[in-house]
Amino acid sequence: MKLMGMCSMRGWKGVQCRKLFVFATILFAASIVYFYINFSMKTTTEVVNDNMLEEGYYAYERAAQESGGVRVIRFNKTSNDVIVFVHIQKTAGTTFEKFLVRYQQNLPCKCQAHKKRCNCGRNASNETWLFSRYSTGWVCGLHADFTELVVNSCVQRVLDKQAGHKKKRNYFYTTFLRNPTDRFISEFRHVQRGATWISSKHVCNGRPASVNDLPTCFDPRIGWEGVSLEEFISCPYNLAFNRQTRMLSNLSLVGCYEHLRRPSYEQDKIMMESAKENLRNMAFFGIKERMDDSQYFFEATFDMKFSRKMSVWGKSKSNDTVLTASQLAYIRNVNKLDWELYEYALQLFNERLSQLHRKKRRLR
Ligand SMILES: *[C@@H]1O[C@H](CO)[C@@H](O)[C@H](O)[C@H]1NC(C)=O
Ligand SMILES: *[C@@H]1O[C@H](CO)[C@@H](O)[C@H](O)[C@H]1NC(C)=O
Ligand SMILES: *[C@@H]1O[C@H](CO)[C@@H](O)[C@H](O)[C@H]1NC(C)=O
Ligand SMILES: *[C@@H]1O[C@H](CO)[C@@H](O)[C@H](O)[C@H]1NC(C)=O
Ligand SMILES: *[C@@H]1O[C@H](CO)[C@@H](O)[C@H](O)[C@H]1NC(C)=O
């Protein structure tokens, strides 16, 4: 109670002053408690009233509970439902995105020859039902992650802007995952050939990451072409490490990119749990090693059909990089989080797949 030293007057006035100070302190604390309770109650009611529409993202878990464990996703082609694809580098995402705009037959996009992007507008409103590279383009930044798309509400903002007014939509998030070691090597080879993704914004907590938040591994004016594997894996800020976990987690929970400077077990754990939760809430996720099953999973979930097989299309064209056992062990180790996420994802994938098969058998 050092502050009471303000009442340094002696005698009667000093006592009054101290009493007044105590009274004011209590009043202040009480009003904080009151506002806190009142406010948090208000926000809860709001969430309960609108969550189905505003946070369509969370609709599936609830739907799953309501139908006795079987997930029901009703993608309504004519209403405000939008599929959003979270494209993690080197996971067959490009193949999937091409299929969505080119070979999907139930809600076909209008594509023109020699144009990368297609119009996936709905017939009636011309508003897009697909948020992806070949429909909307990288409007939330190159390879925007969960934090940029969802936590920072970029999808909502961009689609509202295109529609010209605010609107409630149901978002159906989708992504693809891949064996983390293979993905890492594939990213390394891509960077070695000259890719950098330097223009990714990495928005978190409402602003793009600065060079201070996120140092680069190379001189941006020169790039990283021709980098050796040794150099690639020894840069601590290399975003290739555990990319899948990071891109699927809510980075606001871990102070954005702080974990790259000061790795911590606690933050890793929070990021891991967040990525798993977000994955569970996705309407669909594919696995690069399971293309046929992924195609079935998507088609059965959204009641859409592709006219070709993704497994035939998605074959990797480049030769494998030959690595020593110790290099492989090292790569596995620096992608520990991604390995945990991938193993979790495989299990979830199998569960969802057998649910879909069971549902189909019941319908027959
Ligand atoms: C889809 O949405 C439209 C427009 O909101 C509605 O009229 C229709 O009944 C919905 N269809 C289903 C199957 O829910
Ligand atoms: C949209 O219109 C096109 C041509 O007018 C038609 O072929 C297609 O079936 C329509 N799609 C839907 C979902 O109504
Ligand atoms: C629909 O939107 C696309 C691009 O967003 C535009 O090129 C096209 O002219 C629009 N069509 C109509 C009928 O408004
Ligand atoms: C992400 O984390 C922040 C910080 O805890 C939280 O306020 C926000 O609601 C979370 N957003 C999502 C979509 O999980
Ligand atoms: C891949 O390996 C085959 C056989 O060793 C070789 O003929 C081909 O040129 C290689 N392709 C590339 C892109 O390196």
TrEMBL record:
<dbReference type="InterPro" id="IPR027417">
    <property type="entry name" value="P-loop_NTPase"/>
</dbReference>
<keyword id="KW-1133">Transmembrane helix</keyword>
<keyword id="KW-0472">Membrane</keyword>
<keyword id="KW-0812">Transmembrane</keyword>
<keyword id="KW-0325">Glycoprotein</keyword>
<dbReference type="Pfam" id="PF03567">
    <property type="entry name" value="Sulfotransfer_2"/>
</dbReference>
<dbReference type="InterPro" id="IPR010635">
    <property type="entry name" value="Heparan_SO4-6-sulfoTrfase"/>
</dbReference>
<keyword id="KW-0808">Transferase</keyword>
<protein>
    <recommendedName>
        <fullName>Heparan-sulfate 6-O-sulfotransferase</fullName>
        <ecNumber>2.8.2.-</ecNumber>
    </recommendedName>
</protein>
<dbReference type="InterPro" id="IPR005331">
    <property type="entry name" value="Sulfotransferase"/>
</dbReference>
<comment type="similarity">
    <text>Belongs to the sulfotransferase 6 family.</text>
</comment>
<dbReference type="GO" id="GO:0016020">
    <property type="term" value="C:membrane"/>
</dbReference>
<dbReference type="GO" id="GO:0008146">
    <property type="term" value="F:sulfotransferase activity"/>
</dbReference>
<feature type="transmembrane region" description="Helical">
    <location>
        <begin position="20"/>
        <end position="37"/>
    </location>
</feature>
<keyword id="KW-0735">Signal-anchor</keyword>
<comment type="function">
    <text>6-O-sulfation enzyme which catalyzes the transfer of sulfate from 3'-phosphoadenosine 5'-phosphosulfate (PAPS) to position 6 of the N-sulfoglucosamine residue (GlcNS) of heparan sulfate.</text>
</comment>
